[in-house]
Amino acid sequence: MSKFYILKLIYELHYFRYLLLEYITKNPYDNNSAKKFVDFNNKRVLKKIKKDGAKKVAILLPHCIQKYDCNLKITNNVENCKMCGLCDIAEIIKLKDEFENIDVKVATGGTLARLYLKEYKPNLVVAVACKRDLTSGIRDSFPIPVYGVFNMIVKGPCKDTRVAVNEIRKVLREVGTT
Q1: From residue 106, how far is each of 15, 77, 126, 161 by CA, in Å?
Q2: Is 137 exposed, middle or buried (0-12, 13-18, 19+ CB in 10 A)?
Q3: What is the pTM of this model?
Q4: Residue 157 DSSP symbol
């Protein structure tokens, strides 16, 4: 049990360093300090999952990657997507066919994301989000292994963001979910 507390303390120190650097730089669009925290986390997650195996994987997405003016509601079921290709949802749905034991969920906020993780109980989460939501989500979800992927802000925050689907695919291959 002491190993858990030591690891939690290390996480808190890295998170505190991230917050301190954010405060010092005062640039909300600079991802450098957040990237350091997420990189630290992702290395630890990959090491743990390669050792334990990825038996049940959740891909957790923000609702802002759906095309802003799309009329389809995918927050309750990604299968509602008509695969038009105007956003990255279709490519992520294809990952479900390519890999085993994967569930994809679009969350409208942190509370809904935590509820989903509590119900689904994955042993690996690949989470896509903006800097603030990703770093706080990784911290809040500890000790669940959450591999973080930054979304790409194209037209401003929370609207028509993109995701590096190939990065998610690479992680899934690396942890052996095929």
Answers
A1: 25, 8, 12, 13
A2: buried
A3: 0.87
A4: T
What does each C-alpha distance from 101 to 55, 84, 89, 98, 123 come to in angstroms?
A: 7, 25, 18, 10, 11
> How far is residue 80's CA from residue 8's CA, in Å, rounded to a whole number?
38
Give the model confidence (pLDDT) of 140-176 as tens digits: 888 899 999 999 988 878 889 999 999 999 999 998 7
Instruction: Round to whole Å and give the CA distance between 56 and 39.
Output: 22
| Residue range 114-150, pLDDT digits in tens | 889 889 999 999 999 988 899 989 988 888 999 999 9
**Which residue in this structure is represented by tokens 């759906």?**
66
SS3 label, residue 142: coil
The distance from CA 127 to its chain's CA centroid, rounded to whole angstroms, is 1
Partners of residue 58 on adjacent β-strands: 103, 125
> Residue 75: how many CB atoms within 10 A of its CB?
14
- In this structure, are residues 33 and 79 in contact, taking their beta carbons and an 8 Å threshold? no
CA count, 13 A, side-chain hemisphere, 161: 20
Alpha-carbon distance of 72 to 44, in angstroms, equals 37
Q: Which residues contact residue 112 at a Cβ distance below 8 angstroms, ignoring those fewer than 6 apart? A: none
